[in-house]
């Protein structure tokens, strides 16, 4: 059995802390897409009720052959599969980018602490500052992906602002992202180590490549955020779903009568729920319950790196495991 931890442990914030009290099949509010699809479900339920009422009570024959429904259902299924697979690919790609960026920050931090130019007290201060800048880049990327420009007030988010070098305010109002601006501090430190001989040319090149990989990962997340599903596909998806759900009552009313009402409601719930999931996860960098937990991942990375940094400042490198 895993050992219980009273204070903290790796992934303390980003891992699940408590068991679910209710089975997921009984959850209708937190984390679900029901609120966004309730409108279409109510509409198609009322529409089916009207169709059945006219067919049964007023003896107006509205039934049509059901042979068209299977062909249309295949088209709807293919569209939904493509929609959700594309959205989840974006979600998973974003999560991989976050993981790669955190790994890059870990690698650079470790290398700077153990191999950087740390001969004098001033050098060690520079190393401490650049490691904090690396962690600050994680916060800056998160904020940029949420259209949250500039640094927050120190009282609002001290964990973030305490990592940024004094005087840095960002030039985002000029079109320069703060993550890119902070990367200059890291590159400058690598050049300093290269000039002093702490980093040989191959090592400096490797460190720069690691920094480039962090910036590339951020660029890929920007691509996900700024490239929504094409509107032509979204329009056709909505139209096909509407056509199918509007046609369905006419194809089953003769066989199912009033049972058609709950059946259409159930089918609309299923189809629009799948489509709603695709919309929910196509941009995974926000604050919704189904988005990537970037805040918690960054808090865990910050805790991890700053604990190692504190040990390094006290000269306890030999205790690193």
Description:
The model has no long low-confidence stretch (mean pLDDT 87). The chain has helices at residues 34-56, 68-115, 121-145, 158-161, 178-196, 201-226, 231-256, 260-281, 294-313. It has a domain at 99-228 and 291-314. It has 321 residues and is mainly α. It is elongated, with a radius of gyration of 27 Å. It has nine helices and no strands. Helix 2 (68-115) packs parallel to helix 9 and helix 5 (178-196) packs antiparallel against helix 6.
Q: Please, how many helices?
A: 9
The portion of residues assigned to helices is: 55-70%
Oligomer: single chain
Give the biggest beta sheet.
Answer: none
H-E string = HHHHHHHHH
N-to-C CA distance: 22 Å
- Tell me the number of strands: 0
Could you tell me the mean pLDDT?
Answer: 87
What form results from the Cα inertia axes? elongated
Strand content: under 5%
Low-pLDDT stretches are none
Question: What Rg is obtained from the alpha carbons, in whole angstroms?
Answer: 27 Å
The chain-level structural class is: mainly alpha
Keywords:
321 residues; mainly alpha; elongated
Question: Topology, pairings included?
Answer:
Elements: H1 34-56, H2 68-115, H3 121-145, H4 158-161, H5 178-196, H6 201-226, H7 231-256, H8 260-281, H9 294-313
Helix pairs in contact: 1-7, 1-8, 2-3, 2-6, 2-7, 2-8, 2-9, 3-5, 3-9, 5-6, 7-8
GO molecular function, one term: chloride channel activity
Subcellular location: Membrane
Main location: membrane
């Amino acid at each position: 059995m895993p050992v219980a931890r009273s204070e903290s442990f790796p992934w303390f914030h980003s891992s699940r802390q408590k068991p679910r009290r209710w089975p997921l099949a009984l959850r209708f509010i937190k984390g679900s897409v029901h609120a966004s699809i309730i409108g279409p479900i109510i509409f198609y339920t009322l529409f089916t009720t009207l169709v059945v009422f006219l067919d049964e009570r007023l003896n107006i024959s509205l039934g049509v052959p059901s042979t068209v429904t299977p062909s249309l259902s295949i088209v709807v299924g293919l569209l939904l599969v493509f929609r959700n697979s594309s959205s989840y690919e974006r979600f998973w790609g974003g999560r991989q980018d976050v993981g790669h960026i955190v790994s890059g920050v870990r690698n650079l931090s470790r290398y700077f602490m153990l191999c950087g130019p740390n001969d004098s007290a001033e050098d060690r201060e520079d190393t401490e500052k650049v490691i904090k800048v690396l962690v600050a880049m994680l916060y800056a990327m998160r904020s940029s992906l949420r259209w949250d420009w500039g640094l927050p007030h120190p009282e609002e988010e001290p964990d973030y602002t305490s990592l940024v070098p004094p005087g840095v305010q960002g030039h985002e109002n000029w079109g320069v992202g703060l993550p890119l601006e902070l990367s200059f501090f890291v590159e400058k430190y690598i050049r300093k180590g290269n000039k002093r001989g702490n980093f040989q040319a191959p090592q400096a090149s490797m460190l720069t490549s690691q920094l480039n990989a962090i910036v590339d990962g951020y660029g890929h997340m920007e691509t996900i955020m700024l490239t929504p599903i094409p509107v032509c596909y979204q329009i056709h998806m909505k139209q096909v779903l509407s056509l199918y759900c509007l046609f369905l009552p006419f194809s089953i009313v003769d066989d199912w009568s009033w049972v058609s009402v709950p059946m259409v409601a159930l089918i609309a719930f299923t189809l629009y729920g799948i489509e709603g999931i695709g919309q929910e996860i196509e941009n995974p960098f926000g604050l919704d319950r189904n988005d990537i937990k970037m805040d918690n991942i960054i808090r865990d990375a910050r805790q991890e790196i700053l604990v190692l940094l504190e040990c390094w400042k006290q000269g306890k490198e030999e205790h690193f495991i």
